[in-house]
Amino acid sequence: MLNYVTIKQYIYMRNVSIKTFTVLLAISSLLTACNNEDEVVPLNDRNTQVKYYKTPDPVLLSDEEQAEVQSIRDEYRDAIN
Fold first, then answer.
1. Residue 36 main-chain phi, psi, to 5 deg
2. How far is CA 13 from CA 1, 22, 50, in A?
3. What pLDDT digit, counting tens, does each position of 36-46 carry?
């Protein structure tokens, strides 16, 4: 025989499945969260003088490079107007 599901049973099963999915999603997000909260190197007396994060010194562009940059800017301005 076929088992017919009433509307109340369907709504109950749907709510249970939604709650189960939500609980599983919450558990998986907690388990896959960052395991190290210090993503950046902490600043203390030992590593404040280290120059690993030093940005490169600025270099002036030559006349040819400046002309190329200017032509790219002009092309951009022409394209958006």
1. -130, 115
2. 21, 14, 60
3. 665 666 666 56
